[in-house]
Amino acid sequence: MSEPVGSLAELKELLEGKEQYVFQNREFPFYSVLIYSRVKGLNHHLHEYVSGNAEGFNGLTGPNWLVAVLENVHAKDPGAFRPEDVYPIARFLGVRVDEIPALVFFTDPKARSDLFVLNLGWIMSDLEGPEGYHEEGINKIFTKIAAGIDEICALGGGQDRMADLQSFLNKEFIRPGSES
């Protein structure tokens, strides 16, 4: 599932399970926040991909993965969300601002002590063509992540599910020689 949040306050409400969210009493094996600033380049293409494919993205993430996306559909003033609003969200999650755009994973929405940050900037750098980033390439990355999460959950996804996810993401997306 995916859920748009338009501010740090809305993200906190989502993670705390406040009533306005349909699934407030439901737990997910994996949670993440898709952080992007919507200004230009990959950030803008992520915004276009998520906002232009909201139902498809929601279906893709499925029952095992709740993704908070930085979109302002709940805001009374649609212009209220500004690109610079992503930085307090990143800092709240413990993400360096130079890692944006990123997908931040965790398994406990209240404690978030098991963060794993997937830096989308360098993963997607190979996707940029002469006309920018292609939707198919962005979709392929999210599809691969969703399939990996579904596989981990199908295999039981017990106490070490975050370690299993980190292993999967490192195998799929970390370039050889870039591990530190």
Question: Could you explain how this protein is built, in words?
Answer:
By secondary structure, this protein is of the alpha/beta class. The protein is 41% helix and 16% strand. It has 7 helices and 7 strands, in the order βαβααβαββαββαα. The chain has helices at residues 8-16, 41-52, 54-61, 86-93, 120-123, 135-154, 161-173, and strands at residues 2-5, 30-35, 65-70, 102-106, 116-119, 128-129, 132-133. The longest helix is centred in the last third of the chain and has 20 residues, at 135-154. The N and C termini lie far apart (32 Å). The model has no long low-confidence stretch (mean pLDDT 81).
Sum up the structure in keywords.
180 residues; single chain; 7 helices; alpha/beta; globular; five-stranded mixed beta sheet; 7 strands; two-stranded antiparallel ribbon
Strand content: 15-25%
**N-to-C span:** 32 Å
In which order are the strands of the major sheet placed? 1-3-2-4-5
What's the order of the H and E elements? EHEHHEHEEHEEHH
Total E-strand runs: 7
User: Could you describe the largest sheet, including whether it forms a barrel?
Assistant: 5 strands, mixed
Global shape: globular
Structural class based on helices, strands and sheet pairing: alpha/beta
Radius of gyration: 15 Å
> Whole-number average pLDDT?
81
What are the segments in which pLDDT stays under 50 over at least 5 consecutive residues? none
Helix segment tally: 7
Helix content: 40-55%
